[in-house]
Amino acid sequence: MTQQVSRPPMTEDGQWWRSAVIYQIYPRSFNDSNGDGLGDLPGILGRLDYLSDLGVDALWLSPFYLSPQHDAGYDVSDYRAVDPRFGTLADFDRMRARMAELGMRLIVDLVPNHTSSEHEWFRAAVAAGPGSPERERYMFRDGRGEHGELPPNNWRSVFGGEAWTRLPDGQWYLHLFDSTQPDLNWENPEVWEEFRSVLRFWLDRGADGFRVDVAHGLVKAEGLPDWDHQVHMVEGEHDAREHDAPEHDVPETPLSTGSPYFDQDGVHEVYRDWHRVLAEYEGDRMMVAEAWVEPAHRLAMYVRSDEMHQAFNFDFLVAGWDWGRLSRAIENSLREAAGVGAPTTWVLSNHDTVRHVSRFGLTDPIAYPKGIDADGEQPDHEQGLARGRAAALVELALPGSAYLYQGDELGLPDHTRLPAELRQDPAFARTGGEEIGRDGCRVPLPWAAGEPGHGFGADPWLPQPEIFAELAADRQVGVPGSTHTMYRTALRVRRELGLGRGTFAWHASHDAATGLLSFVNTTADGVRVLVAANLGGAPAPLPVGEPLVLSREDAVQDGALRPERAAWWRLG
Fold this sequence. Notes:
Keywords: Hydrolase. Residues 24-442 form the Glycosyl hydrolase family 13 catalytic domain. The chain is α/β, with parallel strands linked by helices. It has 14 helices and 21 strands. The chain is 24% helix and 14% strand. The longest helix has 17 residues, at 323-339. The protein is globular.
């Protein structure tokens, strides 16, 4: 049944997503309304006023669909049902209606590369046997070797181990992630039609857009060839990582050039098709791609005018606390997005990465750890928080759309001392603990120090670190100098001045020698805002004047910006 949802006012040209601040909610860790240890949709409803007061424009909800939860909901068994752990469709409708009253948009997570092994399609495929139409919905293949005992090719799962699992009847199925997440066959018209239907189901219930999981997946190279698992750059192409020393840690995510199962040109036909579906609806609906793709011009292909509307800017996320990498990420991202008429997105943390406050507290300023545990280097929280707050002011002042991960506004770190027996990320199990996994960034939020689960609810599904007590929302909301107050102030100023729709130019003080990263955002009304972050080791002189926003109350002293601090000034 179509739900009649009043929509928030659109921006002048109707494209609200070009400058929106979007807040990611990981439902199982946001707020627990019934005491079962998991967050839920009623819990989100109960905190919508908090999010409205913070100043965000839209919410992105990670999966809340029916799922056996082998990968925290990214293994979907029914795309049209709310998992009872999280509530009901009626709860979804109440939450969406209240969001509309508060003027907030809603982005729903979509998982099109794979389903759960408990999806009715996969169960039917297993039962039907080799050669059946049911198996054509997935990537089933005969094995190699004299008796088919070897996998069809040498592909590896992103979560570790082989990317193929054999059934008792002898056939193998592909799963680029966990064995409970079989890959769909996007050469099958039934798959295309099913996802058109899923899109319309949630659009009819008031979704304003979709975050597309593994958007660079879906289509595989013809013939499913073996791969040496190395990224081969095409002549003339380069990425920001070429400037880094070999020992620097970078994502071990298969990137664009050379991978036979990511970033194949055929994915773009899927998104052109979905673009046409979204165009059937009023209200300027949108899509944002989760696509770990390099180089930058390959990512820009996903946001051409007839495809996606946004793509996550992971170059910015992995740049770390490093002047050169941040500068290149900003410059390259703005250039490539402008070339296809798309806005740039900016993001520092999400549910798949170590929180930036913890990353910035490590010895290596551009480290991209695949999880942190008690045996590894422990982040310096005070250093990480200072840098994290400064980086947030850079993110929120750049033209385009900004994404916040739940708890960013509280300065939350990862939980780095989770016992192995409590970890639930399949990557931890599939790699035998070699990859720590993502549980540390998914720990339930602290709302009220001293209450059960620090206000999240009794018996949280993952334990919270001790530091969450002092970082709880009730210790920060309305408190001068708190991380929450800094974010709320920055979001208010960003909205009032229209920084998301401004234009970018480096400032004369932008200098590698001093480590000062500085630029000017000129708004549509002609307001010029100087933004500076000191990534160097000494105070950096800047124009005299009253700052609009400070990352710390002590950021500016004697006319200079202190190290690990940032500020915004309004220029004459």
